[in-house]
Structure formats: C-alpha cells, structure tokens
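Researcher: Re-running this chain for the archive, since the previous output was lost when a drive failed. Same request as before.
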Amino acid sequence: MDIITSLAIVGFAALIHASFQLSVSVLTLLSGHAIGSKKSHARLVRLTTSYTTGAGVMTLLLLSFVSLAFIHWFGTEVPLLVWALVCGLVFGIGIAVWLFYYRRNAKGTELWIPRAFAKFLTERSKKTQQGAEAFSLGLTSVISELIFIIPTVAIAALVLIGLPPEWQLVGIAIYTAVSLLGLLIVWSLIGSGRSLARIQKWRTDNKRFLQFSSGGALIVLGFFVYVSKIMATVLGVQ
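Model: Regenerated structure tokens:
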C-alpha cells in the first residue's frame, strides 16, 4: 500500500475508535459529578482537560506498544496469515458490536464491559477531585474499552510498521488525534458552557445509530484491508 492509502486506513481506524462511547460516558459522568458538587467552571475545565489528556496519552502508548510488538515478532514484513487473522478479528468484533455493545440491566442499558471496570470507573468519577486523578481516569477508560478498540489499534499498527520511520510518527499522531474527536467535541461543549443534560440526551437518542455505525465501519475496514493488502498481494497487483 502507498503512503496515502496507509494513512487513510489509519485515520479511518481512529475514527472508528472515536465512535465508541465508554470514554465519552466517563467524561460526562465526571462532568456531571463536578457540576453537582458546585465546582467552579475553571475547575471543571481543568478536570475534563486532564481526563482527555490521559485518554490521549494511553491511546498513543497503546498504539506504540502494539506497533513495537509487531515489529519485534514479524519485522516490517508481516506474514499474510497475520493480516488475515487481524482482518478476521476486525470482522468478529464488528459483529459483536452490533450484537453485544449494549446490555440491559434494571436501570435500562449499559455498555458491555466487565462489571468490575464499570463499577470502578463510576466510583472513581464520583471521587475525582484533582487533575492527576482525572488524568489517571482517562488512562483507565481506554484500557477498559480494549476489547472493542484492539481491532482498530491492531490494524493501524500493522499498517504503520510498513511505513518509513518519519511517516510512522505522522501516522501515530493522526491516530491519536482522530481517536480523541468524540472526547474533544464533548470537552469543547462543556468548556463553552453547554448544558450537560442536552449532551447526554443526544447521546441517548443516538446510541443505537452509533452502535450500528461503529460495527458497520469495523466490517468495512476489515473488508477494505483484506482486499487492498491480502487479495492484492495474492493476485500480484501490488
């Protein structure tokens, strides 16, 4: 794949990452508790900024780690079998997102993540008072959603290790920035004084659309990478 196609795949994978809702949910929880405890607007902005920064740092570290692991295991020439396995993982998680991303409980629906993680994030968002705590909460929120974002990270890492070193850095920066779009939008709305209730209502009203879009986009990503990398190599057109 050429550099433009590779970076486009990385950007699309990051956009799918951004469509998942856990980090945004925790950010709105954090903001809601801060508003409820009568914190100043400046304090609220500091907490949400620290949280968003933590999520960005963990995303950058995660992508860098997975890329380094692939280079250690396979070098820069990754076997087609590995590409096929990762594409299969992307397809599988895409279908899983359609079927299992939300689950019902006594209070309605909640994101399908381990209950221990969900409880921890909820409790920590209530108790967070300092920027360092919000930063660590941002780190943890990315780890908690790993089951859904690992396909996009894996695809991006496979693509990145085939690029020249300077473009690898560009690709990592693109992925990190684009993956934070959802958080950055909510952060900017909260910072500008928009109603948190309206933000929550929009998310609730559109959660099924976002669920369908995320799952469908994963399937499209897996199919595109399969065709552009595996089929193109097998047929000798690249």
